[in-house]
From TrEMBL:
Domain (Prephenate dehydratase): residue spans on this chain: 92-267
Annotated organism of origin: Hydrocarboniphaga daqingensis
Broad class of where this protein is predominantly found: cytoplasm
A GO-annotated cellular component: cytoplasm
EC number: 4.2.1.51, 5.4.99.5
Name under which the protein is recorded: Bifunctional chorismate mutase/prephenate dehydratase
Function recorded in the entry: Catalyzes the Claisen rearrangement of chorismate to prephenate and the decarboxylation/dehydration of prephenate to phenylpyruvate.
Annotated positions for site Essential for prephenate dehydratase activity: 260
Domain ACT: 280-357
Subcellular localization(s) per the UniProt record: Cytoplasm
Alphabetically ordered keywords of this record: Amino-acid biosynthesis, Aromatic amino acid biosynthesis, Coiled coil, Cytoplasm, Isomerase, Lyase, Multifunctional enzyme, Phenylalanine biosynthesis
One BP annotation, GO: chorismate metabolic process
Coiled-coil segments on the chain, per record: 6-40
Amino acid sequence: MKPTTLAQARALIDALDEKVQGLINERARLAEAVRDIKAQTGADGDHYRPAREAEVLRLAMARNTGPLSNEAMARLMREIMSACLALESPLTVAYLGPEGTYTQEAVYKHFGHAVEARAKRAIDEIFRDVDSGQTAYGVVPVENSIGGIVSNTLDELATANLSICGEVLLPVHHHLMAKVERIDQVKVIFSHAQSLAQCRHWLDATLPNASQAVVASNGAAAQQVAETGVGAAIASKAAAELYGLNVLASNIEDDPSNTTRFLIIGRKLSDPTGRDKTSLVFSAHKGSPGALFELLAPFAAAGINLTKLESRPSRRAAWDYNFYVDIDGHCEDPLIKPVLDEIRQRAALFRVLGSYPQAVI
Ligand SMILES: O=C(O)C(=O)C[C@]1(C(=O)O)C=C[C@@H](O)C=C1
């Protein structure tokens, strides 16, 4: 029945909300049953299953008939699953803090809001915390569509005994924020080096005489401006709200498609979902001509798509490099496994950093 008055429409919404709520709790009871089944089968108490979560989100999007968008529907399912998982056991997630960073946004986008997010001061601290079991998972930035790689993360990945179990793509929109109310009052701008670089044209055109100062993160910039009242910060809208700053200009990034990719790090390999990525690190034997070509050729021969290739100093010897490669597919896929074995034989160093579902939302 299509309502014709506001009161009728609201009464129908109330009745429907009651049913939706009942169904959500029924789902939560099933998640509790899953916990009991896992306990009986000797699972280790970590109930988070990245592959299953990706499947649930993909199913929600495939089933969706609107009017809500697929993404809006998936975000709702994301929060329901997050609350269900928190019933099983609250998940702890370390991220690059302080509060208000884009990494914190990436935590909530990937895990939903029912996690215990713990702010850390540096990327290596996050790796240490996850490795020692103090937190179950970590979220670290790995690359930006304009600024390129986050070298600390790649360097930590090469030596850490951890596994990448997910990725998050976060559109990054920068805002100028301060205690003062007018842009012409701003004499100094604080932010992370990458954020300043991503807003360079806007800053040159709008605030050519203001000086720029690099700090550890956008969140730290906003926190500092809130505490001292000095200057302005470039950070997220969430940071402006959290630290009570005035937004003086919005969306000041030079490229509106500016996106940062984050990785979820944990201690377990994720199951295959059919739409996965695998991250690898390897190095070639020094001094042999065509060594890198030899390591990459098996991918081409098997028709495996490379989505990324980076090199970094290996830190073992001068002019020795580690190559970081992302491919489409899971390391257990029957097509991929023998190819990885072949490359392992040919490489000086070879490690699978993780296989994980491609970002869903
Ligand atoms: O299917 C599971 O293994 C569950 O624990 C249930 C559930 C869910 O709510 O759907 C919750 C958490 C997991 O990360 C994945 C899925």
